[in-house]
Amino acid sequence: GEAPASRMSTQSTYPLEPEASQLQPETPKAPGRQRRHTLPANEFRCLTPEDAASVFEIEREAFISVLGICPLYLEEIKHFLTLCPELSMGWFQEGRLVAFIIGSLWDQERLTQESMTLHRPGGHTAHLRALAVHHTFRGQGKGSILMWGLLHHLGRQPAVRRAVLMCEDALVPFYQTFGFRLVGPCAITLGSLTFKELQRSMWDHASRRRNSGS
Ligand SMILES: CC(=O)SCCNC(=O)CCNC(=O)[C@H](O)C(C)(C)COP(=O)(O)OP(=O)(O)OC[C@H]1O[C@@H](n2cnc3c(N)ncnc32)[C@H](O)[C@@H]1OP(=O)(O)O
């Protein structure tokens, strides 16, 4: 039978861990063979503009139904997935999107209201704009696995020196588990909503280990 639901309910069909992620940008399939034929096929890959409708469906439930707004509307999703798909990641199960992260580049120390709409191709900061997991799949570790997967993928892109995001207060501890540091209140507000800004250096993590010994 199934193991009881617990913090370990991550369904570890593949041991994707912070330092030992096996996610490869060119090999989006989860590594290893499925051990049980009943498990759905998993696929991690960068998103394309064709995925925008699926992304927006998740956002509609995750953000709009709760807050009345969402980080990225359909045209904005298409916009960023056209400009910088390599800064995004989707998790598909049997071809269906179950979780996503969409990013773009930013070129200033802190986020500003302008960062809401702009991708700065020369920037060295990955601005992680939106992370969401389909509601029926939450609390299973999927959001965490996807975030580690994207961070690993970004760590292989020399232009990306750090990552930045904004979130509501309640989610600060969640992002701190990925090595993000709280830098303070975010300049961006949406209506009456305020956010905290968090940053994470990419070089303190994957690259340092890779380059150690030089
Ligand atoms: C940059 C941004 O996009 S910020 C906005 C983030 N997205 C959203 O809020 C959309 C709605 N929520 C979701 O899609 C998901 O709940 C996510 C993305 C926040 C987390 O994905 P999940 O797969 O559920 O997370 P995962 O199972 O890996 O980890 C669960 C942890 O997330 C954190 N968490 C999730 N939701 C909340 C919340 N509402 N308040 C506080 N902590 C939360 C907790 O630390 C939780 O750990 P716990 O179960 O021990 O309490």
SSE blueprint:
Blueprint: E1 42-45, H1 52-67, H2 74-83, E2 89-93, E3 96-106, E4 125-133, H3 142-155, E5 162-167, H4 172-176, E6 181-185, E7 196-201, H5 203-211
Parallel strand pairs: 4-5
Antiparallel strand pairs: 1-2, 2-3, 3-4, 5-7, 6-7
Q: How is this structure best described in words?
A:
The structure is a single chain. With 214 residues, the chain is α+β, with helices and mostly antiparallel strands. The protein has helices at 52-67, 74-83, 142-155, 172-176, 203-211, and strands at residues 42-45, 89-93, 96-106, 125-133, 162-167, 181-185, 196-201. It has a seven-stranded mixed β-sheet, with helices on both faces. Helix 1 (52-67) packs across helix 2 (74-83). Mean pLDDT is 85; it is low at 1-28. The structure holds acetyl coenzyme *A (ACO).
